[in-house]
Hints:
mainly alpha, elongated
Amino acid sequence: MHLQYQPGLPLSRGKLIMWLFLSTEIMFFAALLGSYVVLRFGALVWPKPHHVHLSEPIGAFNTFVLICSSVTIVLALESARANKAGAAKLWMLLTLLLGSLFLGIKGYEYQAKFSHGIFPWAPRSRIHEKPDLYYGSAVRARLGEADIVDRLKVLDETTADKLSAEELRGRQSLSDIRKMLANPDQGAFDMAVVADQVMPLAAEGGHGAKDHGSSEHGGGPNDVFPWLKLPIVIPGGNMWASTYFLVTGFHAVHVAVGLLVFAIMLTWTLNAKRAGAIENIGLYWHFVDLVWIFLFPLLYLF
């Protein structure tokens, strides 16, 4: 038997291109994660996860979901190699559903931030770094807006029997805030009291400073009256929001691209001839999973 030397690489062109693409993605996310680490551990102050409505159990569950999706894409590949097209399509569909669940949970986490005024940019972001006079002026300006004045007048005139216990506490907090802001010579200490009234930072373990039975910021008027949208104080919150939404946003885009490819491949017959394509998208999906394995401890545990 005559042996012939093959100078090419022992892998298909599609896999070679995928590895080259992933090498650029590795550099991209390495820069993102490296920048986050430098900013995170170089910052003088950084909010705790429970200060910005990050739930470690939810993040851990989402990590589990993504790991399971990596298992199902491997099972889809093995089924395709065995020429079991039906089983391969079933595992591919399950991968698509798990990836969609991951994005759905991430969207739920985003909504928890948005509902409390935590955005990565102004003017939508209501975050102030410290309870100084600028913060007091922002709260006073918000309470002076025409629509808020009208709502507050209606709230003040509402009898106690028509309000729930939570609404009564929220109305009392609002009354205290307005009294403290009535004096234009408020100091930094009083502004700290105002900030704590507006949104008490959650204590360790995720419980509110005013409501120990809640996993959110407890007792704040913003939670009781969503239309209020008063400015809030989270030390280091603006930098945190910018980095959090940047790194998780780029990761979510990569997840969405993978889901789009899965949806397209579900229209194919996933037999042995398609095994190479499934392997290539599987490599991409494993990379997306690996990136999240790094993101989860950095964002949720430190």
